[in-house]
Design goal:
By secondary structure, this protein is mainly α. It has one domain. Helix content is about 85%, strand content about 0%. The longest helix has about 70 residues.
Length: about 90
Amino acid sequence: MKLPVTFEQFSKDPVKAVTFCMLVVVAYLWYDNKTNYQAQIDHHQAKIEELEAKVDKCLVQLKRSDSALAAATTKLEVLSALGKIPQ
């Protein structure tokens, strides 16, 4: 593999060579950071879907308990109105 900067060029102008190396390093770090964020996004998307399923399940249970409470309250009011339950 041939390097883009020869030793003679590096010795003549080391600032340009170091700048080129830093550019390569920054590009690598940017790419690594981008792929890391994508992995985090994928992980959190799976977690969000799991939590949304739990929320949907809880909403169904809440509706059932709300309906049961409404039915029990109505039954108590009717029994109370008929005088079947002492107040």
